[in-house]
């Protein structure tokens, strides 16, 4: 199984340009491709990143400001034009369904695939999706309109992994014994020798998790929801010198994003949602590094691995 | 005054890619900048073409298929973010206002500028805009949903232009005489000599006109509306070998576009709205040239002059 990865499609705020793509990213985890936000031009960015459209079964929209979803109607239309039949789930605040429906109404389009809208309205952490491998939670953020972050966690699997090399050395161990070994039990041979479990198995794989927090003011309640995540994307629309502007617009600075990452003891921080007024992304990184060392300023079409 | 020009922002159909931009173009005529259609990514193309956003006062939307207007909501939002105060007029079929309104409702946006919607519903040629310099007409096209082309014509100005070099040689001619000269009258000096008007004036400037016809089936009634235009953009989604596909989808072939151009005796034909299945645009040009010589396959970010 591939390591989970996050591919940035766009990491700028508000006005798209040839270089500045609005928010969109793909999380690939346990064989799933989750699209998170979908600013204008996302379908072109997906193509550049060589993401297969047909693998996208779940789309998460944080809020209904244009730089986070104006590319969605185009993507959904393209799915239709390409003959998609597999239905898709869209997790978004109230309003998105009305917006999408009115487009298809006026183009007289009868979609060939279904859209399952999961309307988000919780003001607390809430599990919004689960399957056998992954759980997704909405994280309440603080912005000018109702906005969620998202927490993606692999499902706990506490079973130990078999160490086949060692197991094959002991002819007494049969396939029927494997289940007990996975559960951590020691093995007793026919002549009464106890072989400790740790000699026959490996520790279960670590559960990996990713948290997406954009757009948000500097908001301490986020911390408890994202504790110890392996990767945190936290918006940093501004630098510290524009902190007042951040407060007035419901955004954060790089300095504040780093503070949240440090307090939540996350493994790695990615910055993004940059204001176009700062062309040098390294400035964001430099500012955050003073508080939290393992930080990168995310860049479009770059992939970051969870490990 | 600059010569009227048409700048192509996008000339492909349906699915946008990094190279294939959906329909959008800017007609610059008599100091006005008219935006015609607005597929996804148009605001980025406008920036690349160095078109000043603030000069756009009129937007014409042919029909409500996504590749002709999915970039509009992003552009209108950007106008707002840039602090635009000048109102804008949008000429479009019924439905567009509802689509735009629902976006701004859910983002709780109160626009700083006004939008004046002119809802198009005529099934005949109809004048939809006029000012002191230009008239615009909707041209009924034949497509899967209600669709208009647009005809842009400079206003007739039959007044002759003064030939100041000649006029200054004749001291008898005073400023009060200029009006009569512009109207084509001869001049009589104080000693009774008649100076013919053509010696003192130039012919009035030619009236230039541009017709945009996309999307449409091969539709002969277009011809009478676009007779003698200086530039015709007529869609050619397909080549002749895919004529059946053109019929089934409500589009035209390059061959058919050329036939329309020839019958309408236009000065120059531009092809566009190409299907992505034909990567070599010269094939369209080659096919059309067999019927109509002065033809070009339009290309993004290229400017074509009316003369």
TrEMBL record, chains A, B:
<feature type="binding site">
    <location>
        <position position="273"/>
    </location>
    <ligand>
        <name>Zn(2+) 2</name>
    </ligand>
</feature>
<comment type="similarity">
    <text>Belongs to the RNase Z family.</text>
</comment>
<feature type="binding site">
    <location>
        <position position="67"/>
    </location>
    <ligand>
        <name>Zn(2+) 2</name>
    </ligand>
</feature>
<feature type="binding site">
    <location>
        <position position="65"/>
    </location>
    <ligand>
        <name>Zn(2+) 1</name>
    </ligand>
</feature>
<feature type="active site" description="Proton acceptor">
    <location>
        <position position="67"/>
    </location>
</feature>
<protein>
    <recommendedName>
        <fullName>Ribonuclease Z</fullName>
        <ecNumber>3.1.26.11</ecNumber>
    </recommendedName>
</protein>
<feature type="binding site">
    <location>
        <position position="215"/>
    </location>
    <ligand>
        <name>Zn(2+) 1</name>
    </ligand>
</feature>
<comment type="subunit">
    <text>Homodimer.</text>
</comment>
<dbReference type="Pfam" id="PF23023">
    <property type="entry name" value="Anti-Pycsar_Apyc1"/>
</dbReference>
<keyword id="KW-0819">tRNA processing</keyword>
<keyword id="KW-0479">Metal-binding</keyword>
<keyword id="KW-0540">Nuclease</keyword>
<feature type="binding site">
    <location>
        <position position="68"/>
    </location>
    <ligand>
        <name>Zn(2+) 2</name>
    </ligand>
</feature>
<keyword id="KW-0255">Endonuclease</keyword>
<dbReference type="InterPro" id="IPR013471">
    <property type="entry name" value="RNase_Z/BN"/>
</dbReference>
<comment type="function">
    <text>Zinc phosphodiesterase, which displays some tRNA 3'-processing endonuclease activity. Probably involved in tRNA maturation, by removing a 3'-trailer from precursor tRNA.</text>
</comment>
<dbReference type="InterPro" id="IPR036866">
    <property type="entry name" value="RibonucZ/Hydroxyglut_hydro"/>
</dbReference>
<feature type="binding site">
    <location>
        <position position="215"/>
    </location>
    <ligand>
        <name>Zn(2+) 2</name>
    </ligand>
</feature>
<keyword id="KW-0862">Zinc</keyword>
<feature type="binding site">
    <location>
        <position position="63"/>
    </location>
    <ligand>
        <name>Zn(2+) 1</name>
    </ligand>
</feature>
<keyword id="KW-0378">Hydrolase</keyword>
<feature type="binding site">
    <location>
        <position position="143"/>
    </location>
    <ligand>
        <name>Zn(2+) 1</name>
    </ligand>
</feature>
